[in-house]
Amino acid sequence: MRTILHGLGACSIAAALAACAATLPATTLPPAPPPLFDGAYRAYVVIDAVGPGIDKSWCVAPGRVTINVVNNRFTLNLTPRLSGAIALAFILDVAPNGMFQTQASTAIFAGQIVGPSLEGLINGPGCRYSVTATRMGSATDAYPRQTRGERG
């Protein structure tokens, strides 16, 4: 009989603990901050393609530039030589997944940052540019190789 009561006592203690645990407030952790892609990126902007009837010399690629990402935001300026073209100022916000996209006049700049690499395409009226960059201070810190769009 004593073992039965002892067993019942253990059950009632376990039940009491379970009831207490159920009434404790759940511990919630604050949400993780969004990733920061901040830093200086060594970038290379090259002509990737030109539209029909467009002279490649009208598409000006700045070549090597530095892109400074601050608070997941950066700006890239581009001035094509197309007749009537205006200077393009792309102001981009980087999403938590590294994606970015914006439009300046009739040109669209879209891409993504993954690890230390930033890559994107600028599709403008008559000219398309590729942008490849590496965050300075990363293991792969160097100007990217030239792409096919920049060869002769």
Kindly summarize this structure in a few lines.
By secondary structure, this protein is mainly beta. The protein has one helix and eight strands; from the N terminus they run H-E-E-E-E-E-E-E-E.
Give the key terms:
152 residues; mainly beta; Porin; six-stranded antiparallel beta sheet; elongated
Into which percentage range does the β-strand content fall? Answer: 35-45%
Remind me, CATH topology?
Porin
N-to-C span: 97 Å
Number of helices: 1
Description:
- It is a single chain.
- The chain has 152 residues and is mainly beta.
- It has a single domain, classed as Porin.
- Helices cover 14% and strands 40% of the residues.
- It has one helix and eight strands, in the order αββββββββ.
- It has one helix at 2-23, and strands at residues 39-50, 63-69, 73-78, 88-93, 99-104, 107-114, 117-123, 127-135.
- Strands 2-1-8-7-6-5 form a six-stranded antiparallel sheet, with no helix packed on it. A two-stranded antiparallel sheet has the order 3-4.
- The termini are far apart.
- Mean pLDDT is 80; it is low at 142-152.
Task: Summarize the SSE layout with pairings.
Elements: H1 2-23, E1 39-50, E2 63-69, E3 73-78, E4 88-93, E5 99-104, E6 107-114, E7 117-123, E8 127-135
Antiparallel strand pairs: 1-2, 1-8, 3-4, 5-6, 6-7, 7-8
